[in-house]
């Protein structure tokens, strides 16, 4: 068994340093450059594409949309960006559970924040920030009726989570499940 002085002089400071490094890594804010193109829909987050599927979006649009789900592990940057330019037409916070973010029902059962942006080229796009089992806090910087553009931060989700983006059904999807994407860099869809 380690002595008390070894514990206080080496082990506890080492553990504290590792925790501090993890927190600094998690809350990093990279400087990203991107190519602005009105026809491109950029990834709103870093992570792995969980699914690409046609779903009924019933919170705002009440129609069929293509949903791209992006899972952010604890190692990803957790800033979320606007995927297109346009005007924020809807913003609503929903309290909820903290199921594992990979679970399909987390999109409607977990704590989440829903934002819709209207763009004259891409149409109306909905972005949903979803808290996960570890992520217990969604920070949103969204203001309704505000004009926004890619590069601006939509918000932040702490410690592992998911972002769903709901796109018009006639859009060209450029990603598939299992793809790694980077916020503001990866083009996930494009207007044909």
What is the compact description of this entry?
By secondary structure, this protein is mainly beta.
Question: Would you kindly provide a written description of the structure presented here, covering whatever features stand out?
Answer:
- The protein has 192 residues and is mainly beta.
- The protein folds into two domains: 1-30; 40-190, Glucose Permease (Domain IIA).
- 14% of the residues lie in helices and 41% in strands.
- The chain contains two helices and 14 strands.
- The protein has an eight-stranded antiparallel β-sheet with strand order 9-5-6-7-11-3-2-13. A three-stranded antiparallel β-sheet has the order 1-14-12, with no helix packed on it. A three-stranded antiparallel β-sheet has the order 4-10-8, with no helix packed on it.
- Strand 6 (112-119) and strand 7 form a beta hairpin.
- The radius of gyration is 18 Å and the shape is elongated.
- It starts with a helix and ends with a strand.
- 36% of the residues are buried.
- The model has no long low-confidence stretch (mean pLDDT 89).
Instruction: Report Rg.
Output: 18 Å
Which strand order spans the largest sheet, edge to edge or round the barrel? 9-5-6-7-11-3-2-13
Percentage of residues assigned to helices: 10-25%
Structural class: mainly beta
């Amino acid at each position: 068994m380690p002595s008390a002085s070894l514990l206080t002089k080496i082990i506890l400071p080492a553990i504290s340093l590792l925790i501090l490094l993890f927190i600094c890594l998690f809350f990093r804010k990279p400087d990203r450059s991107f190519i602005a193109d009105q026809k491109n829909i950029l990834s709103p987050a870093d992570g792995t594409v969980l699914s690409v599927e046609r779903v009924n979006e019933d919170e705002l649009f009440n129609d069929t949309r293509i949903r791209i789900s992006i899972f952010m592990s604890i190692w990803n940057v957790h800033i979320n960006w606007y995927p297109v330019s346009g005007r924020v037409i809807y913003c609503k916070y929903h309290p909820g559970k903290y199921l594992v973010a990979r679970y399909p029902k987390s999109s409607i059962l977990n704590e989440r924040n829903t934002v819709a942006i209207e763009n004259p080229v891409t149409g109306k796009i909905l972005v949903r920030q979803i808290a996960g089992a570890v992520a217990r806090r969604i920070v949103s910087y969204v203001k309704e009726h505000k004009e926004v553009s890619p590069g601006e931060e939509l918000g932040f989700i702490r410690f592992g989570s998911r972002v769903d983006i709901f796109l018009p059904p006639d859009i060209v999807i450029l990603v598939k499940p299992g793809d790694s994407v980077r916020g503001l860099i990866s083009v996930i869809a494009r207007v044909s």
